[in-house]
Amino acid sequence: MCTTYLGAELAARLVATGATIERSLLIRCHPAIEHKTRGNAAVCLHTDADPDRAFKAAQTLVETLAERESSRTNPGVVVAAHNAEAIPDDVGVYSRAAMRTRVTRARALTLIKRHGYRHATWDNGRGVIGALAALGAWHAWDDWTYEQLAYRQAERWGTPRDVAADTVFAAANRWYPTVWDTVDRVANSPVCVPHTPGPVLYGIRGDDPEVLRAVSDAIESEPIDRTHRYMTNQGTDAHLQEVPLADTDNGMCVRTTGRVTRPPETRPGGHVFFELGDGKTSIECAAFEPTKRFRDRVRDLRVGDRLTVCGEVTDKTIKLEKFAVRSLSHSKRVVPTCPDCGRSMESAGAEQGYRCRACGTTAPGKIEEPLDRTLERGWYEVPPVARRHVAKPLIRGGFDAPIHPER
Ligand code: ZN
User: Fold this and answer.
1) Burial class of residue 372 (count of CB atoms within 10 Å of its CB; 0-12, 13-18, 19+)
2) Per-chain residues with Cβ under 5 A from ion ligand 1
3) In 46-176, which ranges are continuous DSSP H helix?
């Protein structure tokens, strides 16, 4: 069961008891851990509901609605009796760590005990990690975006979604870039409409809740069961940690800088690889096939280009989400050609330079040949169709170099 739907349903049940919901948070936890659910989502409701009643309602909801048969679904519920402004520092620190590193169930349970939180877990109990991370998130993060979700009527779940794509594109264009990743204009895809079975009809992401509502209202579709708006860490790059190249390791999501030391190469399946180094160490970087046109930007890289790259490290390979060109190499060293016959010279031996066997001409060494570059300085990113939830779209701004946003 979609975590955001459980949050919306719980909010509705609490409101039905007379409580108010001050805000709903949707937190995307560390993307690189293997025990995650598909979107690795956790939700947190800030409410004036009685803590015991809220705890009971959440437990009942998980019992009746969560997909317990799925081995990758291990629900957890945590309830704190204090308000969002009173989140303890150690819970905030934990929440921040859960976004960027592997945190343990034991650490979560220690904090829960220390602060007297109510908690419940099912199956392997791992759900408590995400639940506590969502609880502490308001303390941990400053950058928030919004997602307005529209849910389908239950009898339609699993059937094709009926959403008028032209109205999605019209609304997305009218309110871009306050809303982003609604559509992919090059792929001609309404990316706000998911393909997976489940209750979500569409989700509008952006920086202004009023505009999200306007976009949602402008979309024509099958009847909507309910809508729910979350504040979220989606689109914020909360998962990235800045590290030197030598400190990149499997399971981390990093931002790191180096030079291209081996040129881009397209491998079977359409995946593009190159090597990034800093003189002491190097790591492979990859733009996989689903990143589509982003691969053309990667193919434009040349040895010597200085880059900052962002992405998840798996199998000692950085799966690129975006990169910044810091400086471009404008020449490359090549074997000289013979001035008489135009053919490539051959090595005349170690430290002996080059010569043309046919004409007898010689050259002292490799020569610099100018490179025509199409890339410019600044940030390039995967297109909206390939964006992971937590990755920050360039159009949101705040980057340290010019941006080349994908729309
Ligand atoms: Zn020659």
Assistant:
1) exposed
2) 338, 340-341, 356, 358-359
3) 51-65, 89-100, 105-114, 127-140, 165-175
Instruction: Give the list of residues 6+ apart from residue 331 with CB closer than 8 angstroms, or none.
Output: 368, 369, 370, 371
Instruction: Tell me the whole-structure pTM to 2 decimals.
Output: 0.90
Tokens of 375: 């890339």
CATH of 3-140, one of 3.90.470.10, 3.30.70.2200, 3.40.50.720, 3.40.50.150: 3.30.70.2200
Alpha-carbon distance of 36 to 57, in angstroms, equals: 24
- Under CATH, which architecture does the 241-330+372-404 domain have? Beta Barrel (2.40)
In the 8-state DSSP scheme, what is residue 291? G
Tell the residue number behind the tokens 């135009």, with chain if given: 342
Instruction: Determine the distance separating the centroid of ligand 1 and the alpha carbon of 350, expressed in angstroms.
Output: 20
> Domain coordinates of the chain in residue numbers?
3-140, 146-225, 241-330+372-404, 331-370
CA of 26 to the centre of ligand 1 (A): 68
Domain range 146-225, CATH architecture: Alpha-Beta Complex (3.90)
Over residues 260-312, the pLDDT tens digits come to 999 999 999 999 999 999 999 999 999 999 999 999 999 999 999 999 999 99
Write the pLDDT tens digit of every residue in 353-392. Answer: 999 999 999 999 999 888 889 999 999 999 999 999 999 9
Banded pLDDT at 239 (limits 50, 70, 90): very high
Q: Quick one: what percent of the chain has pLDDT higher than 70?
A: 96
